Every structure is written in structure tokens, then in C-alpha cells.
């Protein structure tokens, strides 16, 4: 242990190394529940690529596991420490190195906060679309590592689609450059994409070239109340089948609505079983909203409220933004799931989740990126109650089983981490898992990069 | 050899196996020039996944190389046979298995022709955007294998962005399923993306889940004549910097224009040094074209012609569609390059290519997917003239060197094949190449999948 700290210290400035056990322990986990975390031997906060290389050379020489971290807003335990590891926090490498409005790219260090990049891009009339809920705190490196999504994915896609090239420090400290800064390029296997969602298991991302998009007009939002989750999901299917391209298409179920009502007195009628929110950032959003309003009414909506101004739209979105805090206020602990199904099966997913909640006598509120079929069932429970914790975990697992049964995936945007390792193996099957392992061994033959995560 | 044919025959219907040497030889190459091709031992045209598995099991048992082929419209020799190989043509597996307008996906076999899928999707109000020039003949499997692009990429992106999941027969005949049929999903490393552009070196794609988009309105096109390539490129930069999203943004250089004039009497003034074509499929394309017209005039355009109708637009696009045949009519042989640079460097790329042509005393016409910075310099030469062939190859290489110098890539959308192997190594460098090789060995430890291609 002393040797580890000594070696680390030899290539790092004092402020980049935290060896005090109490402070180091505060870096032990991300925001996932149900997940174990160990005690790191050291926390390093490098500011340069060379410092990261020094850390990785040291880790390789001493065979010490390295756990890379961003803002630790992750929801699957992918950034949780293991005992005796080096926690490698990239948060201090937070410079935006370049924004080019002609090439529509940004070059950034991994610790740049998502919202900071968005704001910087806006000065050039551009935007960085991926918008995880934690966008005010989460980092680009963490977004890439977990392949994160967000509210606007239904129109603008996920993080993966915005990563053009990467600079990576490999397990042994060597430098790997992947991808490009051009709009297109097919030179060899797509190593860039391989790193997106790799949860720190293939290398340490120290720089990224990101695609930017022209900033769209401010969106207008519509809210529609439905007498059942099924009818709201039918409206979602109709909107997509009719060829609309909303920039946001969300559903909140009854449990979520009641929780939001309780927290914020939104005044939603208690008889409402599901709320659909739909936004357009098109040239004529009112016309698009009118078309969607008609589809909602045809699907059985009891009330349809289209906003006339961006300010009204913001108010309607408040309910969605309050969903997670409102559900968290219902119980001492919550666990958020992340099952994505074909959108045609969304109704079955919501009804099935409600049945699981009832069977286990638990409160499970669902908000969903409905346009993508990506549901976030939030299991509310008392972690001090062993039986309730057991039932919470069982329902969490049953939700994933249901998602797979409906042709979906166990994770639409939160990743695998330690939380869903067993389920990843189930979803992939033995052949795919064998090749996942093979790729990992190619990049990390000593097994020091975030071991115990993914598989 | 007899054993190979006998074993193949044991698991294939008669019509799926071609052993006649003359017929087999007709499958020896794709449409790339400069590329060697060997003589296949057999050509198989399976119709089922099980037949493909039988072929791969046989190839593994006998250690015989397998060269997968689609429509052989490729431009890098990736589908060229090697001596004694099995050519595995997927063209007979050409069924569209499913189109789902709610989930906006298609499930297809690899031999489906790109245009057939597009037409089938249109019946649901949908479109499959990737549109390589060969779209009337090329296959989806070939598109995925080479990660092909097209004219609409500037707005709609490349093939890679539309491949959600794959079924793959591995080198040893096992079946691998990758990806998903949901809009989002991050379960493990993105093996799907790894196969896109892998040129048959990792496995045989036997089924693909593809994303579809709502069919956009018919585009309107504008043509603008410029007194120099540099001024046309400046207009491209201005269009992109101002936040426009054209569905097509092409440049044809002077050499291409003259060739088109000669072939089709387009009546373009011979003083025109570059023609820019810009299309919008937005709700109000006339307004967008008017904005672009102003930017073109500010950049020095001598003539700007916006179309008022889709029919007029089609006429303007004719010149672009005729570019390649018109250049091919200039010389006994042509070789098409595929360098992609940051669009801010497009002017330097075009001027540099003209200088290379002049230095070598050759005709090189350039058409470019200008919005993406993806240039296609077409080197015209007489392949019966040894010195001219040498100069043609030298200029071809110098164009790639120039592309790399400008921060670009040696291939924007055509792939590597055998044509650009050495240049791939140059672009990637030794570290990236080591990991490319490592991945290949993971999937193909015996080295029987399209050996000699890529690297």
C-alpha cells in the first residue's frame, strides 16, 4: 500500500492525490442503490493526460485495480470502488478545448459538465443534444462511459451518436486515438463506439471529439391526461406511426402523478391514470401539437392542454422534472430501473409493472421516455425492512424479466455496472458474452480496469 | 479441393453451389480498380441461415478462407476473391422479413437490395435513408459490411446509424445475436457497431434490424455556379455555420462539369469553376433555399438557380448523378478516391487535388458530399499505359496523404478492402492497429474470414 502511494506521488502534484482514508472513502460510490462498494486505497484527480498515464503505468506495474469516475451520478454502480483500488476521478480535467461552428464539433476533456458544454455551444448557435436528467452535474466522460441518454433522445438520439473520436489512456499507460474529427469516416473497426458504454473497462477516456447540432427553436409542449396507461401508450404509438418527430414524448403513470401532486400541488385530477407530455421544436410547433392533440383525443384523452408559449411549456415540464424527487419522497429508499421495450409493447410494460407492484405490495412509480419505449420504474421501499428490501429487489428483477419477455433490453441508458451483471449475462447469452469477454481481455489483459463491473 | 466441394455439397441444395471454374471466376471481384483478385475454389449462394452455418463449419474444418459478397458494387476490393477461397454470396437471401411502422424498424436478410427496402418502407410512410449511389443494385449486407454512406448523409447520417441489431454466423458456424430491436439499449459493448464496416472479417451477417425514419417531404434543390472551388467551399462553410440543415449539399468541380457538359449538354458555362447543389426537405424548403441563395451570392456565386418544383429539382440533380459516368467516359480507366476532411478544410482539399492532377499531368475530377467534407476525386487514366497507371496510383496516394494532412480520413464511406490497406495502417498508427488485430483474432482465430482485407 505504501509502495502504491509512493509511486503515485512520484508523478502527481500533491493536490492530485488523496490518501486520507476518510476523504478517500467519500469517493466510494455512485448514486445506485442495491450495490456494494469497497474502500479505495487512494483517490487521484489528475489534471493532465501525462498524469493519467502515470497512474495507469503505476496500476499496471503493481497490478492494482483502477475505477474511473466522473460526477458519480450513475445509477448502476459502475463507478463504485472496489477494496484497495485506485479511484481515478476525471473531474479535474474539465476544459472545453475547442468549439468549431463550421465543423460543428467540440473537443473536450472528460470532466466537462454536460450543461457547461451545452451553454458554451449555445454561444455559437449550437447545442450538444444528449441531456441526461443529471445534466447540470454529470460529466461528458461519465456520459460516454455509460452511454447515457435523456429526454430528447426520441428526436436527437443518444450519447453514442455524438462521439466522433476519443483519446484513451490504455491499461498499460499507452495512448490510443480512435475515430476522427470529420463528419464521416470508416477507417477500420469502430473503436470509438466500442468505448461508448464500456464503463471504464477498456481504457481511460481523456479527450473526446463531439458532434454538435444547430440549436433548435424553443419547444412547445402539450400535456394530455388519460384514463389508463394503455390509452396513453396507444397515443404514443399513434404519434409515432403517423410520422411525427417530437423532441420529447414522455409518460408519467398514476403513482408518479400522485407523488408529484403531493409534493408540488400540481392540481392534477386524481382520476388521471397517466399523463403524456409531448414537445416539438419544429418551425411550426403549434401545428404539430394540434395534430398530436387530435391523436390523443382519438386514443381517449380526457383533457389535452397545449402550451402557447415556451414559458407555459416549461411549466408543463415541471411535473416531469419533479417525478424522481417526488417518488423519492414516498419512501426511505428508491431504486430506479431502466428497461427499454419496443414502443409497440409499452402498454404491456406499464401494465405488467403495475401488476408486479401489486403482487409484491410495493409502490412502483413509472416515468418513461415513451417515444423510445424506455421506462424508468422507481421501486419505493424501506431499506431498513429486510422483507421489504427483498421484495423490492425481487420486483426490480421481475421488471427486467418482463422487459426481456417483451423483446426489450435490461438497460436503455443507465448501463450495467454491478447492479445488472447477472441480467446482462441473461440478455446477451453465452456466445455474445464470450466475445464481450474476449474484447475486454484484448484491451485489459491484466484485468485491472474496473474489474467486477459489466460481467 | 474435391473434399471441399463434397463437404459443401452435403449441406447445400444443388443450385446453391457453383463449382464450374468459369462461372466461379465471374465472382472474383467488386468494382474497385487497382486491386488484385484471386480465383475462388467455389461459389455458394445460400438461402438459409443453416446453409450459411454449414458453409462456415466446412470452412473452419478445412481451414479454407471465406470471402463474403453482396452485389459487388464496392469500391475498395473488399469482396475480391483470394485463390482457393469460398466465395459466399448472400444475394439469394433477399427477403424483407418485417416492417413495423410503430417501432419504425425493418428486419431484413442481407441480400435485400437497398432500393427495394426503400420502396417497401415507403408503403408505410417510412424511409430507409442511407442512399449509396449504387442503391438500385447494392445490398443491405454489403452496405453494412462497408459502412456505406450516400448523398443524404449530411442530414440523415450513414448506414451505421441505422443498424440496431444483427444476427451473425461466426467463423466456426455458431450464431451470434447483437444489439436489439428497441430504440435505445446499452447492454454491454456495442458489438453491432463493430460489425458495421468490418468488411466480412468478423462474421457473416445473416439478418439485420434496421431503423426507419418518417418519409420527408420531396426536396427542393438549388444550383449555384462559382468562379472558383474555394468560393464554393466558402459557401458550404457559411451554410453550415449559419445552422442550416440541408438534406443534400454537393460540389462538382470544373473537370466534372466539363465532363458532364460533354456527355449530356447541360449547357453550363465553361467559365464555371464549381457547381454547388443544395437541397432541403424541410416544411418550407423555398425559404431555406432563399437563405442559402443569399449565402452563395455573398460567397461570390455568379448564378444561383433555385428550383420551384420537385420536377425542376430532379433536373438539377441529374448533373450530379451523371458525374461518375461522365468522368468514366473521359478515359479507359478511372479510380475513385474517398477522402473525408473537416468541412472547414474542403477548399484546401479541392485546391490540393487540382495541384496533384496538374503535377502528374492527369485528369482528376472531383465531386464531393461537400456538407460532410467527403470528396470523391476520380482519377482518369489509361491502364494500358504503364507510366500513366503509375502516375495515377501515385496521385491516388497523394490525395490520401493530403487528406490526412488536413485532419481527415482516407475513407469516408467506401472502406479499406485491399485498396487502402497500407493507408489504413498509416492513418491508425501502430497502437490502434494492434487493437484492431486483437479484435479480429478474437472473432476469427483461424484467420479464415476475408483474409488479406483491411490489414
TrEMBL record, chains A, B:
Question: Which co-factor is required?
Answer: FAD
Record-annotated FAD-binding PCMH-type domain positions: 36-215
Q: Which domain of life is it from?
A: Bacteria
The alphabetical list of record keywords is: FAD, Flavoprotein, Oxidoreductase
Matching InterPro entries:
FAD-bd_oxidored_4_C, FAD-bd_PCMH, FAD-bd_PCMH-like_sf, FAD-bd_PCMH_sub2, FAD-linked_Oxase-like_C, FAD-linked_OxidoTrans_Type4, Oxid_FAD_bind_N, Vanillyl_alc_oxidase_C-sub2
Record protein name field: FAD-linked oxidase C-terminal domain-containing protein
What organism, scientifically named, is this protein from?
Streptomyces sanyensis
The lineage is:
Bacteria, Bacillati, Actinomycetota, Actinomycetes, Kitasatosporales
Amino acid at each position: 500500500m505504501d509502495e502504491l502511494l509512493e509511486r503515485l506521488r512520484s508523478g502527481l502534484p500533491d493536490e492530485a492525490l488523496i490518501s486520507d482514508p476518510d476523504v478517500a472513502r467519500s469517493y466510494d460510490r455512485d448514486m445506485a442503490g442495491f450495490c456494494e462498494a469497497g474502500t479505495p486505497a487512494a483517490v487521484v484527480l489528475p489534471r493532465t493526460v501525462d498524469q493519467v498515464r502515470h497512474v495507469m503505468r503505476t496500476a499496471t506495474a503493481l497490478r492494482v485495480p483502477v475505477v474511473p469516475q466522473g460526477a458519480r451520478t450513475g445509477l448502476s454502480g459502475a463507478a463504485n470502488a472496489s477494496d484497495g483500488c485506485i479511484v481515478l476521478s476525471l473531474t479535474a480535467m474539465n476544459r472545453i478545448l475547442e468549439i468549431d461552428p463550421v465543423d460543428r464539433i467540440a473537443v473536450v476533456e472528460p470532466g466537462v459538465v454536460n450543461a457547461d458544454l451545452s451553454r458554451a455551444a449555445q454561444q455559437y448557435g449550437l447545442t450538444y443534444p444528449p441531456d441526461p436528467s443529471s445534466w447540470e452535474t454529470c460529466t461528458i466522460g461519465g456520459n460516454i462511459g455509460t452511454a447515457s441518454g435523456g429526454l430528447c433522445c426520441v428526436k436527437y438520439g443518444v450519447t453514442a451518436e455524438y462521439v466522433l473520436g476519443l483519446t484513451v489512456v490504455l491499461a498499460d499507460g499507452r495512448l490510443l486515438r480512435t475515430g476522427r474529427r470529420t463528419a464521416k469516416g470508416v477507417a477500420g473497426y469502430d473503436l470509438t463506439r466500442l468505448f461508448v458504454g464500456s464503463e471504464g473497462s477498456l481504457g481511460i477516456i481523456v479527450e473526446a471529439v463531439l458532434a454538435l447540432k444547430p440549436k433548435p427553436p424553443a419547444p412547445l409542449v402539450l400535456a394530455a391526461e388519460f384514463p389508463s396507461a394503455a390509452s396513453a401508450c396507444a397515443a404514443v404509438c399513434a404519434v409515432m406511426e403517423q410520422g411525427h418527430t417530437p423532441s420529447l414524448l414522455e409518460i408519467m403513470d398514476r403513482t408518479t402523478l400522485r407523488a408529484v401532486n403531493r409534493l408540488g400541488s400540481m392540481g392534477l385530477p386524481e382520476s388521471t391514470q397517466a399523463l403524456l407530455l409531448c414537445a416539438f421544436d419544429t418551425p411550426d410547433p403549434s401545428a404539430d401539437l394540434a395534430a398530436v392533440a387530435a391523436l390523443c383525443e382519438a386514443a381517449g384523452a380526457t383533457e389535452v392542454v397545449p402550451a402557447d408559449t415556451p414559458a407555459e411549456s416549461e411549466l408543463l415540464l415541471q411535473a416531469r422534472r419533479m417525478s424522481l424527487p417526488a417518488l423519492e419522497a414516498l419512501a426511505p429508499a428508491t431504486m430506479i430501473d431502466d428497461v427499454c421495450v419496443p414502443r409497440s409493447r409499452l402498454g404491456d410494460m406499464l401494465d405488467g409493472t403495475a401488476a408486479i407492484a401489486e403482487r409484491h405490495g410495493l409502490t412502483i412509480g413509472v416515468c418513461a421516455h415513451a417515444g423510445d419505449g424506455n421506462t424508468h420504474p422507481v421501486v419505493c421501499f424501506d431499506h431498513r425492512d429486510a422483507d421489504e428490501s427483498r421484495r423490492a429487489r425481487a420486483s426490480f428483477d421481475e421488471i427486467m424479466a418482463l422487459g426481456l419477455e417483451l423483446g426489450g433490453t435490461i438497460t436503455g441508458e443507465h448501463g450495467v455496472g454491478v447492479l445488472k451483471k447477472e441480467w446482462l449475462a441473461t440478455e446477451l447469452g453465452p456466445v455474445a458474452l464470450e466475445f464481450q469477454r474476449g474484447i475486454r481481455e484484448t484491451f485489459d489483459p491484466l484485468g485491472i480496469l474496473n474489474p467486477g463491473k459489466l460481467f
